Amino acid sequence: MACMNVQQWLSRATARLDEVAIDSSRLDAELLLATSLYKPREYLLTHSEKVLSDHKLAQANKWLQRRLNREPIAYILGHKEFYGRDFMVSPSVLIPRPESETIIEMLKSLQPDTIIDVGTGSGCLAISAKLEIPKSHVVATDISEDALQIARQNANGLNAEITFVISNLLSGIKTVKSDQPVTIVANLPYVDSSWQVSPETKFEPSQALFADDDGLKLIKKLILQTKKKLRHGDNLILESDKRQHEQIARYAKNHGFILEKTDGLIAQYKLSA
After folding, report:
1. Mind giving me the DSSP string for 192-215?
2. What is the pLDDT of residues 145-184, one digit of tens each?
3. Same domain for 99 and 63
């Protein structure tokens, strides 16, 4: 295997990633190489002339090929940052998106006594909520036991006390017994199968991305279930595409929910009746 230093590998990897139209080509190249060297990205800047060993070069090239195949870098590296914390991820869970951090901001504003995260996946919402609002009792549900296993590992690693329940939406949750504010949050599948999506999404679990009825099947089902669980004044926070907001708001209103606010992809509803 030909000798190559850090800068040479980064230049070559960035160019190859550019060829397959990966916008974050330089960043991805740096993350792949830094991780293969067990070093922070800053190390690459100060050691640009360092010659890579055959072993490290082979590892970096192996990961580069996976990224060239459009596998998300979070799955290659096995983790993803969310709200300032590092979460373990695998193809069993949806990769946390920065847009979802708005949900945590809304929760911090509401300060609910009980938070139920429906379709928790990696657990990033439930865990972040618990760590940001320590007084809250947080319950996290998912239909996938594999996803719950990842979420439990993340909760243990971040010292977050979460109650995990395997459940199809709220079906496994009995009536919420609380005379204090309750908020249900959910980043459910809302992508319609007809939409154009990035090549990376083929690596993510389809049941965490796609839904029938223009992407609204599970959101509508959750709204119906939520009405039976919450009391007057409790909140429901949903993530969806902006194109769906108006239709969801109408459906929610027909079932007793008033739209309180929207921010990006996130909408907050209050049960009024």
Report:
1. -TTS---GGGGGS-GGGTB-TTTT
2. 999 999 999 999 999 999 999 999 999 887 665 678 899 9
3. no
Structure letter (DSSP) for residue 187: -
Q: How far is CA 108 from CA 70, 131, 254, in A?
A: 35, 11, 28
Between CA 32 and CA 253 the distance in angstroms is 47
Q: For 79-105, give the secondary structure using H, E and C.
A: EEEECCEEEECCCCCCCCCHHHHHHHH
Domain span at 156: 92-271
Q: How far apart, in whole angstroms, are the C-alpha atoms of residue 47 and residue 79?
A: 25
Indicate if the alpha-carbon torsion angle 153, 155, 157, 161 is positive or negative: negative
CATH code of the domain in which 13 resides: 1.10.8.10
CA 101 to each of CA 74, 157, 176, 193, 224: distance values in angstroms, whole numbers, following the listed order: 17, 20, 25, 25, 25
Amino acid letter at 7?
Q
Angle at 74 between CA 69 and CA 75, to 5 degrees: 60
The answer to whether 122 and 89 have CB atoms below 8 angstroms apart is yes
Give me the pLDDT at residue 62, please: 97
**Do 111 and 43 belong to one domain?**
no
Q: Using alpha carbons, list the distances in angstroms from residue 115 to 22, 60, 126, 144, 220.
A: 37, 41, 8, 20, 20
User: What is the percent of the chain with per-residue pLDDT over 70, rounded to a whole number?
Assistant: 97
Rounded mean pLDDT, 102-112:
97
How many Å apart are CA 219 and CA 189, to the nearest integer? 8
